[in-house]
Write a structure and sequence with these properties.
Length: 401
């Protein structure tokens, strides 16, 4: 049964419990990147004139969040991570003239007993006013009528002029509908003015929500979908904010004939610009340190020592770079166990590289099974997922597709 179908007893429980029982998490300090220099230099110009948020404030968002990138006390819920993402977006938005708005969907006292609530009416954007709108998201309850949130936003946009960016935050889980019909109607109404962006704020068992949200973004033809984990850091958040609000301000050279980092991959196809000289790269132009692990093991096999020795030589030649060694696992065993296993794998590779380079700029982090590069349904796929990857100067080294 869809969560929108709420019984009389459920409504009574919501009225009794209210919102006060939902804990408030305090997140670690976030240092946003300053994008104003990109605008003042003319490198980028503003492309969105309106920024309208649709926030999932249903009961599923009150579950604990098991992703990475949002350490907090107490452990955060998905709802509190949604608010933290909006806060980080707010800190990163450069000085732009915008109209902004925030609307939520769910049901119960948190939404004044409606299926959608306008938490902040369309108003001139400033960091303080948008922050107040975020604060107006007080709790989550009830079902997930995303269609009501989209319909309400379509009406909110009626008085706008200029280009529109709509951002949807949700776990995409147990929705009453997929929202496609309503999003298609919004696109038909606002045409090329509208771009839709989505952020999946879910847990490992809810990954089907990623596809659903990506489908909504794709309807607009000019937006994109991402996940909370992927935009948790300042660099990644800055890239996401740029994709929403900015566009290049100068003509761009033909990237197909350029190879700026001279790694053999043209700039059009290069997903990892500025690759360090001598790095072995994938077809995506990313530095691949190909170290795999046996199942349930974190011991580096001798066959990978030459690979790591080569990486160490490159790092010694560029002591200024920062490296995050990222450990991963296949989806075998429990979630918490795999998070610790992936961390041990990352630490093993980090220790090897530090021993060879003495670099203080190499860190380790485990991601468990949350970022697979292959299927977990076959042994070959699981073997590919038992790996380490590098992040260089905040740039993820994208694996092979």
């Amino acid at each position: 049964m869809h969560k929108i179908l709420i019984t009389t007893a459920s409504i009574a429980a919501l009225l009794l419990s209210g919102c006060a029982s939902q804990p408030i998490s305090t997140f670690n300090h976030f240092q946003a990147q300053d994008l104003n220099g990109l605008i003042s230099s003319g490198q980028y110009v503003q492309k969105a004139d309106n920024f309208f948020v649709i926030n999932d404030s249903s009961s599923s968002m009150t579950d604990e969040y098991y992703g990475v990138g949002y350490p907090a006390q107490p452990d955060p819920t998905k709802f509190s991570v949604e608010k933290e993402i909006l806060n980080r977006i707010n800190q990163t938005i450069p000085d732009l003239k915008l109209t902004s708005s925030i609307r939520s969907f769910g049901f119960g006292k948190c939404l004044d007993m409606g299926f959608t609530k306008l938490n902040q009416a369309p108003t001139s954007y400033s960091k303080s006013t948008f922050g107040s709108g975020i604060d107006a998201l007080t709790c989550g309850s009830g079902g997930s009528p995303i269609s009501s949130g989209i319909d309400g936003t379509a009406k909110d946009l009626s008085a706008t002029t200029g280009n529109i960016a709509v951002l949807i935050l949700s776990d995409g889980h147990d929705l009453d509908t997929d929202g496609v019909k309503e999003m298609q109607a919004m696109k038909q109404k606002y045409g090329d003015r509208l771009c839709v962006y989505t952020v999946w704020v879910g847990n490992p068992e809810e990954t089907s929500g990623i596809t659903l949200l990506n489908n909504l973004a794709n309807i607009s033809g000019c937006g994109n979908g991402t996940t909370a984990d992927n935009i948790s850091g300042p660099e990644h958040m800055a890239s996401f904010v740029k994709s929403i609000f900015l566009k290049p301000g100068k003509p761009v050279e033909d990237c197909s004939v350029l190879d700026s980092d001279k790694d053999g991959v043209n700039d059009c196809d290069d997903k990892c610009p500025n690759t360090l000289p001598g790095s072995k790269v994938s077809i995506n132009g990313c530095w691949i340190v190909d170290v795999k692990f046996d199942n349930d093991k974190a011991v580096i096999k001798p066959e990978y020592f030459p690979e790591l020795d080569n990486a160490a030589e490159i790092i010694k030649g560029h002591p200024e770079v920062t490296i995050e060694v990222q450990g991963h696992t296949s989806k075998t065993g429990g979630f918490e166990y795999n998070m610790k296993l992936s961390e041990r794998r990352a630490i093993a590779v980090r220790n090897y590289l530090v021993k060879e380079t003495h670099s203080p700029n190499i860190t380790a982090r485990g991601y468990g099974w949350t970022r697979p590069i292959d299927t977990n349904e076959t042994e070959a796929g699981r073997a590919n997922n038992r790996r380490v990857q590098l992040e260089v100067n905040g740039q993820p080294q994208v694996p092979l597709p």
